[in-house]
Specification:
It is a single chain. This protein is α/β, with parallel strands linked by helices. A 6-stranded mixed β-sheet has the order 8-4-1-2-3-14, sandwiched between helices. A 5-stranded mixed β-sheet has the order 11-10-9-12-13. A 5-stranded antiparallel β-sheet has the order 17-18-16-15-19, with helices on one face. Helix 1 runs parallel beside helix 3. The chain has 3 domains: 243 residues, ATPase, nucleotide binding domain (Nucleotidyltransferase, domain 5); 66 residues; 110 residues, Alpha-Beta Plaits, CATH 3.30.70. This is Competence protein A. It comes from Anatilimnocola aggregata. Keywords: Membrane, Transmembrane, Transmembrane helix.
Length: 506
């Protein structure tokens, strides 16, 4: 099964999530953070990639594709309005508007956008964002050092919002809050769609929790107001915090009182499938992994990422009509050639058929002559099969005509087939209670198709109640009757034998 790797990093740590893809589901196997050892100087992409590569090799991953989440602080984002135009022209219009309104945007900058709806004049409103080629090069450098290939580069708030897709199919306006070390992602959603993302700076993680909570609350208020202005007066009515509910009781109580709106805490690992080992030992700060889990879930489900700088929306390539004309002309020419070839081939086929029939006619005489010899052999085989003895039927007959068990018993049974003339001999040896019983048995076994030859009887004192030993030979005639010798008695067959187990006949 395919294993998926997603990662991101900030100034303090590197976060990684690994999943196993089963069909369209992602089973999260591991989620861990790699702290950076030095903070005096920025760590290089090569060093980050080396750290990641060592961790992945320990987990049996040496190469593959990687999903990367990038924060809002590393790119430029604008709300743009475009004039009415066909949908396939929208990517070119968005880039044209972005070149006029973005502060720094070059022709080589990857740019993607998320449609937000239509404007009053029939145009389109979009959320456009671009990332510098230097950032993309750094990310590719990290992947190369780790033995990975960057497959998707997704804006972090959009990836985290994917985790709420199952529970945000309504049209409510809500805000997600995701605390990531010294940063926090704030994203306003309408239904499942992100319409206003922000990344804010928080006091150091070493500051008291109430200080960080108060600073974050202030940023939440400012984001609510800014989003309300951007959305034409529509107000956020629910707050969703990614994290562990058990670690945020004071924050929840304070925010509910201050904001006067619905608030809930969502553990990202509770809305995805996780392995048993990860279920037992989850990360200390689960909210920080929300973007990575959203990336893995979308990738496994084969859902397109809303913002993907490695696969941005582009104008569809124009239709090459010359190719169509070439294909049509070639098809017509090929059709004419095929028709001519079919006519020639039909004539050749008929000539070849006539020649074949003449050869077949000449060869039938030889086949008939050869068939006569084969028919003679088949008749001989049928005659041989008809002369073969069905020993199961003979044993059934012997069992039916044999004296009762208290009068006689079979100790040895030998079946002999006559391979040349058909028929065979059935040699029966055993003990009986008296000679009259042996005589009666001979009479019962004898008929027009069987000759019974007895060897007499002999008393055996050690045999108990059945003290008279006998040996009877039942000759089963072939299709031509018994084979007579000069003495007038049936001849004995060559020994092609099948021996039965000792025991009574009944």
């Amino acid at each position: 099964m395919q294993r998926l790797v997603a990662f991101e990093w900030d100034s303090k740590e590197f976060r990684v999530a690994i999943a196993q893809q089963r069909g369209k589901n992602a089973i999260i196997e591991e989620a861990f953070a790699i702290p950076f050892l030095t903070r005096e100087q920025p760590i290089t992409p090569a060093e980050i990639g080396t750290l990641l590569g060592k961790e992945l090799q320990q987990r049996g991953i040496s190469k593959g594709d990687a999903l990367i989440a990038v924060g809002r602080a590393n790119l430029e984002l604008r709300f743009l309005n475009t004039p009415p135009a066909p949908a396939d022209e929208l990517p070119d219009l968005v880039r044209f508007q972005a070149m006029r309104q973005f502060a720094t945007l070059g022709d080589d900058w990857p740019l993607d956008f998320s449609p937000l709806g239509s404007t009053a004049d029939g145009g389109s409103s979009v959320l456009a964002t671009a990332v510098s080629p230097e950032i993309v090069a750094q990310i590719r450098g990290v992947c190369a050092a780790a033995g990975l290939t960057a497959s998707h580069l997704v804006l972090r708030p959009f990836a985290a919002a994917s985790l709420l897709r199952a529970t945000t199919q309504d049209d409510r306006c809500r805000m997600t809050v995701d605390m990531l070390g010294d940063d926090a992602d704030l994203a306003v959603l309408i239904g499942p769609n992100v319409v206003y993302p922000r990344t804010v700076r928080l006091p150091s993680s070493e500051a008291p929790p109430e200080v960080r909570s108060k600073a974050l609350l202030g940023e939440v208020r400012r984001t609510i107001v800014a989003a309300q202005n951007q959305l034409g007066g529509r107000r956020v009515d629910e707050i969703v915090i990614f994290g562990d509910e058990r670690k945020l009781p004071e924050l929840q109580a304070a925010w509910r009182t201050d904001l006067q709106m619905d608030l809930r805490v969502v553990d990202p690992f509770s809305v995805v499938e996780v392995s048993d080992s990860l279920q037992r030992t989850r990360p200390a700060f689960p909210g920080a992994f929300a973007p990575l889990l959203g990336l893995l879930v979308d990738e496994a489900a084969n859902r397109p990422h809303t913002i993907d700088f490695l696969h941005p929306r582009r104008r569809p390539p124009p239709v090459n009509h010359n190719r169509i004309y070439t294909v049509v002309g070639g098809a017509l020419a090929a059709s004419l050639l095929v028709l001519a070839a079919l006519g020639w081939w039909n004539l050749r086929t008929m000539d070849a058929r006539i020649a074949d029939l003449n050869r077949d006619l000449k060869s039938q005489t030889k086949v008939v002559d050869q068939g006569k010899a084969t028919r003679t052999k088949v008749l001989e085989l049928d005659k041989f099969a008809a002369a073969d003895v069905n020993w199961l039927d003979e044993l059934e007959r012997l069992s039916q005509r044999f004296p009762p068990a208290e009068q006689a018993r079979v100790e040895d049974l030998l079946a002999l087939s006559k391979s040349n003339t058909g028929g065979g001999n059935l040699v029966v040896q055993g003990v009986a209670d008296q000679p009259d019983t042996i005589s009666e048995m001979e009479t019962a076994l004898r008929d027009k198709d069987r000759t019974v030859i007895g060897s007499g009887s002999k008393r055996d004192p050690r045999a108990g109640a059945l003290a008279w030993r006998y040996r009877e030979e039942v000759m089963v005639h072939g299709p031509n009757g018994p084979l007579q010798t000069k003495t007038g008695r049936a001849s004995r067959p060559a020994p092609t034998a099948t021996r039965g187990a000792a025991g009574g006949a009944k």
